[in-house]
């Protein structure tokens, strides 16, 4: 049974950066639910994939050094530990992972044509389609079995998880490996990072919920790693249950135990998270209101999908922010969805007369602080909402 625990209000499409200032924008209800049987946390309203993932998806994984490094390290591990003949990536984005591999060993699946074109042009076999059983059947026919499937921050964006895992089960060889990574629900709850929820993130996974979903398939988790990326992610290593050659690592039990320790298997934990979220919202609004009374200049750093949730939930608009900065070319000179705040292409000079920077990309705090040493040196400060709203300079 799905039980409601938090209402994040009406939200525009998180990655739909607007070309012009618009008072009226289409918004969708963003409500969070916990499933008592599977322990899966999900949002209520499902937006058709085509509306979100099309020919102009702006987010590019390789825009941050942190992510490039994380994918590079993973590629070294994959080659050493599994040495796959053929690696299929579901949601290859702009190729941040696959460019670390030999072109002949990769099949990329990416539904956004602007991104698929990038990896195709770079010489990688790229299928510009959504991941589903029809595609899996075609891949199976053409390539037989795949020995490694990888997917980062993608499966949680697909509504029909049964279809997702049935399709994976279909193409994965008997001793094949599936590696998926996504934000960790436990980290999200600990950090009160309610901004991990937006219309693209239909689910936020925990080890508990992934384990329950996989019960219906010939698939099981055999190893789990905690990663610092995206504010705390989990990387799940999955094999076929029928493959007895690989032993289940103690990391799986450890993660499940930890999630149970924090009550992720109990509805009360989510009710508590909802209360903490409302407090976080009020405290963040207080900080912004006080700074604006003092006529301080505030900008946003990182025009993230996560920031869209915060701005719209906390009702922070162009009256609070001078602008946002972002390095992504496709976001430049557009406006933050729902709140009409201009996004400028990042240039250090833009920070010159700014007093406060709101960390829209708080998950890259370390990378940003390293880059903005001058801003900090001259007394510039940052505002963050994780794990609770406050002003920081280190
Ligand atoms: P970042 C996206 O979410 C959407 P977002 C998606 N649904 C998802 O699941 C996650 O990614 C994985 C910019 N930046 O990664 C680049 C700077 O400008 O937190 C990006 O636009 N300067 C697929 O949008 C944004 O910040 C910098 O120095 O919440 C970061 O976006 C750095 C480091 C980043 O994901």
Describe it.
- This protein is of the alpha/beta class and 394 residues long.
- Helices cover 32% and strands 23% of the residues.
- The protein has 12 helices and 17 strands.
- The protein has helices at residues 49-52, 65-81, 113-121, 133-143, 161-171, 185-190, 207-214, 250-261, 267-293, 305-314, 365-371, 373-377, and strands at 2-11, 28-35, 41-43, 87-90, 106-109, 125-127, 146-152, 172-183, 203-204, 219-227, 233-240, 298-301, 324-326, 343-345, 356-359, 381-384, 390-392.
- A 7-stranded mixed β-sheet has the order 6-5-4-7-8-11-10, with helices on both faces. The protein has a 6-stranded mixed β-sheet with strand order 14-13-12-15-16-17, covered by helices on one side.
- β7, α5 and β8 (172-183) form a beta-alpha-beta unit.
- α4 (133-143) packs parallel to α5.
- The protein is globular.
- It starts with a strand and ends with a strand.
- The model has no long low-confidence stretch (mean pLDDT 97).
- The chain binds ligand JHZ.
Mean pLDDT: 97
Number of DSSP-assigned strands: 17
Shape type: globular
- What string, H for helix and E for strand, traces the elements in order? EEEHHEEHEHEHEHEHEEHHEHEEEHHEE
Bound molecules: ligand JHZ
Helical fraction equals 25-40%
Would you tell me the structural class of the helices and strands? alpha/beta
Largest sheet: 7 strands, mixed
Q: Give the N-to-C terminal Cα separation.
A: 43 Å
Percent of sequence in beta strands: 15-25%
Strands side by side in the biggest sheet? 6-5-4-7-8-11-10
Q: Helical segment tally?
A: 12
As residue ranges, the low-confidence spans are none
What is the CA-based Rg, rounded?
A: 21 Å
């Amino acid at each position: 049974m799905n039980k409601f625990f938090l209402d994040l209000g009406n939200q525009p499409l998180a990655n739909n950066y607007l070309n012009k200032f618009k008072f009226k924008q289409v918004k969708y209800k963003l409500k969070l639910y916990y499933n008592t049987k599977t322990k899966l946390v999900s949002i209520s309203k499902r937006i058709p994939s085509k509306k979100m993932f099309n020919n102009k998806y702006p987010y590019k994984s390789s825009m941050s050094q942190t992510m490039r490094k994380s994918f590079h390290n993973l590629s070294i591990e994959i080659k050493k530990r599994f040495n796959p003949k053929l690696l299929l990536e579901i949601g290859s984005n702009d190729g941040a992972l696959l460019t670390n591999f030999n072109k002949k060993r990769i099949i990329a699946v990416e539904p956004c044509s602007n991104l698929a074109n990038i990896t195709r042009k770079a010489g990688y076999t790229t299928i510009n389609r959504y991941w589903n059983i029809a595609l899996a059947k075609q891949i199976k026919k053409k390539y037989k079995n795949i020995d490694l499937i990888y997917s980062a921050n993608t499966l949680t964006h697909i509504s029909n998880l049964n279809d997702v895992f049935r399709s994976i089960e279909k193409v994965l060889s008997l001793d094949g490996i599936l590696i998926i990574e996504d934000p960790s629900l436990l980290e999200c709850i600990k950090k009160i990072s309610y901004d991990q929820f937006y219309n693209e993130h239909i689910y936020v996974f925990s080890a508990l919920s992934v384990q329950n979903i996989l019960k219906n398939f010939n698939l099981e988790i055999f190893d789990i790693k905690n990663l610092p990326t995206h504010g705390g992610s989990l990387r799940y290593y999955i094999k076929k249950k029928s493959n007895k050659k690989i032993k289940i690592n103690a990391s799986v039990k450890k993660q499940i135990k930890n999630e149970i320790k924090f009550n992720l298997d109990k509805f009360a934990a989510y009710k508590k998270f909802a209360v903490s979220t409302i407090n976080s919202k009020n405290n963040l609004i207080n900080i912004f209101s006080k700074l604006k009374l003092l006529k301080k200049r505030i900008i946003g750093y990182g025009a993230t999908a996560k920031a869209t949730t915060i701005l719209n939930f906390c009702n922070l608009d162009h009256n609070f922010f001078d602008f946002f900065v972002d390095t992504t070319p496709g976001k430049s000179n557009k406006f933050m969805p729902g709140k009409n705040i201009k996004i400028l292409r990042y240039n250090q000079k833009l920070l010159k007369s700014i007093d406060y920077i709101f960390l829209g990309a708080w998950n890259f705090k370390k990378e940003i602080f390293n880059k903005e040493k001058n801003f900090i040196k001259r007394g510039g400060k940052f505002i963050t909402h994780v794990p609770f709203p406050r002003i920081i300079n280190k």
